[in-house]
Amino acid sequence: MEEFNLNAILPQVKDCAIAAGRYFKQAAIERIDSKSSNSDLVTNVDKQTQQLIKLQLEKIAIPAEFIAEEQNNPELPMGYAWIVDPIDGTSNYIFHRHLSFVSIALAYQQQTVLACCYNPYRDDLFTAIKGQGAYLNGKQLHMETRPLEQSLLAIGTAPYDKTIAERNFECLCGLFKASLDLRRSGSCVADLCYLAANEHNAFYEACVSLWDYAAASLIVKEAGGEVHTNHDYLKLGKTYIMAGNSANFVNLKAICCRYLGD
């Protein structure tokens, strides 16, 4: 498999993410549908934004599969693949909460090698190339180290699978007791990116999809953080996710795994 110059590709991916974010920020919602549950929502703008991203990425001279939230997907290949969430935080978008992200990852051999996540409401552009650090608007990110008892935790409530609600909220209660406090944003991408930017110190959610974390998890790792899911490679389907820094991750993982049975 031919290797590509990721530094040459990144500016085009940045332009794509920014254009997509600016598009959905001003677009009009005309239709809202449910997918896997009544909490799993999709709008016409999600689909339109995804198509815009696909057309832009096709202009980049790299032979890659296109894996995205608002379509049926093949298995993730061992070669190159774009992994896209056109609007992470669709419920936020519908309810005008102004915290939604475009997320674009490039994977190779089922590992993320390039990441670009854009929040058009704050004009925050997060980028990373594997082995080259993580950046927010061009400034390199370095995660702080705080023990769990001094950490502000971002959490997700796994709204798409309410069959695990009791066990999940027991875990969240354990994390609340062990930490400084909890925060809920409604966007996995936001939680991971702003973890890398030190706006909180750890993150946990019991049920996320590949496109929710493929890009932003690389940003955390390249900023010096740790990320754990229920597999060591990128894979379609649901997984839990936990992320933190070198001072809190062991205790974070121990509490979460106590309830997950991992």
UniProtKB/TrEMBL annotation:
Molecular function as annotated in GO: inositol monophosphate 1-phosphatase activity; metal ion binding
One GO BP annotation of this record: phosphatidylinositol phosphate biosynthetic process
Entry cofactors: Mg(2+)
Stored Pfam families: Inositol_P
InterPro entries named in the record: Inositol_monophosphatase-like, Inositol_monophosphatase_CS
Keyword field contains Amino-acid biosynthesis: no
Keywords assigned by UniProt, alphabetized: Magnesium, Metal-binding
Positions contributing to Mg(2+) binding: 69, 85, 87-88, 212
Recorded catalytic activity of this chain's protein: a myo-inositol phosphate + H2O = myo-inositol + phosphate
EC number per UniProt: 3.1.3.25
PANTHER family (alphabetical): INOSITOL MONOPHOSPHATASE (PTHR20854), INOSITOL-1-MONOPHOSPHATASE-RELATED (PTHR20854:SF4)
Protein's name in the database: inositol-phosphate phosphatase
Biological source species: Amygdalobacter nucleatus
